[in-house]
Write a sequence for this structure.
DNA sequence: GAATGATTTTCGTATTATGAAAACATGTCT
DNA sequence: AGACATGTTTTCATAATACGAAAATCATTC
């Protein structure tokens, strides 16, 4: 069913579909299944997979089943721009995680969603798990609302238009005026809450991270079971956000030049 | 000059070459450069890049320059098999890092090299940096020598045949009998040293990690400036290696069945 | 040991990617 | 400003390329 719109080059679309299909399974997958899953002819799938193997995007185990290859890891960790943020954020995130004993996430905006690009999880039995690379709509996350707020009212309207503000829980904001107000208020306060808006039982606190050019470059957030979340964290989190922004070259006041 | 041998599908080879080219640059790159770098016609490069963008393997920034896309991260972190090891190893590695105050690496074997798949770096100004996804030949690394030892003498001979045991520093072992002896001894001791064999000034201690089926699944190592390396770490490291193996389902004695 | 089911290879064909060149941006210099 | 230079994007006729049906090979089951 993964019928993506064509992009100009058939093989690349097909190769991408195959990679996705492989990624969907927790264990190595057979050619048969992959061909069925992607709707490709087996011989075509086989040929493309052979090429992907040659390029180390895919590996074949001893049983002849396919799994993702190390090249993806190699390339994945080199994401430009983000690689810096991730590396710099890591220690700060670990510090927060130890302080709160909860999951700390780093996210960036991509289109109408936030994408999780790094996380620090505590050593507790129960904690919020966010898969790196997974996505969530802007209007149901703390960081997302801040990003919307920073983008301005017109952008929020456009976003609402495009997405129709679907509800994820009964707490999700699905009403444009309320969303605009919430985003503006969050931005003004410097932090945002997510009160079980994306998932029941989970609450977040988020802040924005700015880069050297003064643009929003990422979001930093804590996710915890709602009953364990503490308002005291807000201060620490805002502090960490500022710290991280400074580390990325952000200058608080648009200082009057000098080289 | 990155002239890879053809794999059966031209476009995929070319797309891979483009991704590599992008990854080589720390900042977003222009089409011109990418075309030159890969030897592709600009219009071809442009078309392939457009397709890669459509599939989110590549992004274009506001200046029209290309950088790697988030899909790579998404897929990269889902590497099957390794994902478990990485996740389980993370806390153990962080513990070791805090204990030693040095970089701790997790590696797996791929062909004739070890690949770094996870690391924990200390908060010190000077520490050993290993890029995730980067590679090093087996015979100049601690973990690599253990893996060779575990593979047996015949495999070491074959490895030597294939690679010719190139020297990386004046301490590298480039002589087959010595390598065989070193590997066997390391395996017997349960740990291996790398005394500035891969890079001057850097010393490592490595141990192996076994999975549930009793196979070598990864290697765990500390890398430090040679002057700071301590023999006392060996014990802790071996301990951690055993712990991690157990966590992965390894059973010390090949217990006599029972389901 | 035949039969079933999956993987791999082959090969003629038409679809698909190709790249030269032309249009379009963008920035630079006088 | 205007015109040049440089880089990007689109077009389009062409042939090289990827395609997939079917045959051959391999593995597994009954």
């Amino acid at each position: 069913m993964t019928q993506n719109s064509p992009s100009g080059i058939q093989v690349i679309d097909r190769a991408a579909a195959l990679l996705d299909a492989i990624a969907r399974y927790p264990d190595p997958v057979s050619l048969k299944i992959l061909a069925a899953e992607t709707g490709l002819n087996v011989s075509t799938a086989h040929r493309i997979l052979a090429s992907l193997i040659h390029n180390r995007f895919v590996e074949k185990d001893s049983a002849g089943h396919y799994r993702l290859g190390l090249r993806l890891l190699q390339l994945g960790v080199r994401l430009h721009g983000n690689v810096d943020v991730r590396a710099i954020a890591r220690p700060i995130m670990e510090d927060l995680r130890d302080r709160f004993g909860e999951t700390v996430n780093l996210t960036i905006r991509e289109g109408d969603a936030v994408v999780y690009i790094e996380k620090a999880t505590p050593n507790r039995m129960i904690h919020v798990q966010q898969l790196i690379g997974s996505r969530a709509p802007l209007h149901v996350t703390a960081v997302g609302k801040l990003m919307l707020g920073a983008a301005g009212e017109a952008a929020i309207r456009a976003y609402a238009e495009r997405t129709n503000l679907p509800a994820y829980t009964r707490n999700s904001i699905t009403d444009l005026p309320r969303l605009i107000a919430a985003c503006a208020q969050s931005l003004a306060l410097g932090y945002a809450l997510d009160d079980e808006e994306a998932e029941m039982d989970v609450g977040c606190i988020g802040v924005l991270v700015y880069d050297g050019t003064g643009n929003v470059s990422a979001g930093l957030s804590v996710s915890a079971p709602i009953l364990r979340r503490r308002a005291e964290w807000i201060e620490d989190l805002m502090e960490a956000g500022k710290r991280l922004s400074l580390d990325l070259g952000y200058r608080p006041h648009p200082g009057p030049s000098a080289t």
